[in-house]
């Protein structure tokens, strides 16, 4: 069993799009024109966005922010993710997914890699978005505090 978490990304024009929005890919394997397998090291955080439509419009919009797990660790199953991952954020429905993507863009705009954001932040976002409140923005100060806490804990 590998210590890598594998994610199958798929793109079929105007039908299905599974993509990784952020994360540190350690290995990539192309299966065919439409499918690739991306691998993440244990502990790595990544965002997996899924979108599906049919002749009548969008059927599924979903974002999962996951932490990759080591072999044998407990994890939640997520479609297209093998073996699964620790779910930090799980949202469905385009309005919530769009807000989460905007928040990721805002973190990018601060020159912070979203994969380095404190995992607790993603839990906080989930709780706030589920009741339609404005989530507390992630700031450089909060990020510096998180990095400092990580150094102290080592």
Q: Could you describe the 3D structure shown?
A:
By secondary structure, the chain is of the alpha+beta class. It has one domain (4-153). Helices cover 27% and strands 43% of the residues. The protein has helices at residues 94-109, 119-130, 140-153, and strands at 4-12, 16-22, 25-30, 35-41, 45-54, 57-68, 76-78, 81-92. β7 (76-78) and β8 (81-92) form a beta hairpin. The longest helix has 16 residues, at 94-109. The mean pLDDT is 89.
Sum up the overall morphology in one term: globular
Roughly what percent helix?
A: 25-40%
User: How many strands appear in the DSSP assignment?
Assistant: 8
Radius of gyration: 16 Å
Short description:
With 154 residues, the protein is of the alpha+beta class.
Features:
5-stranded antiparallel beta barrel, 8 strands, 154 residues
What is the fold's blueprint, element by element?
Elements: E1 4-12, E2 16-22, E3 25-30, E4 35-41, E5 45-54, E6 57-68, E7 76-78, E8 81-92, H1 94-109, H2 119-130, H3 140-153
Antiparallel strand pairs: 1-2, 1-4, 1-8, 2-5, 3-4, 5-6, 6-8, 7-8
């Amino acid at each position: 069993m590998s210590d890598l978490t594998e994610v199958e990304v798929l793109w079929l024009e105007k039908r299905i799009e599974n993509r990784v929005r952020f994360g540190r890919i350690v290995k990539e394997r192309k299966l065919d024109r439409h499918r690739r397998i991306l691998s993440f090291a244990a502990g790595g955080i990544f965002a997996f966005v899924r979108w599906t439509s049919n002749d009548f419009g969008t059927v599924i919009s979903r974002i999962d922010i996951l932490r990759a797990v080591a072999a044998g660790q407990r994890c939640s199953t997520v479609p297209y993710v093998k073996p699964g991952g620790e779910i930090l954020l799980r949202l469905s429905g385009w309005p919530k997914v769009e807000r989460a993507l905007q928040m990721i863009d805002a973190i990018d705009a601060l020159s912070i890699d979203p994969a380095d954001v404190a995992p607790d932040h993603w839990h906080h976002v989930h709780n706030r978005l589920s009741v339609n409140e404005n989530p507390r923005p992630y700031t450089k100060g909060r990020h510096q505090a998180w990095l400092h806490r990580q150094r102290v804990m080592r």
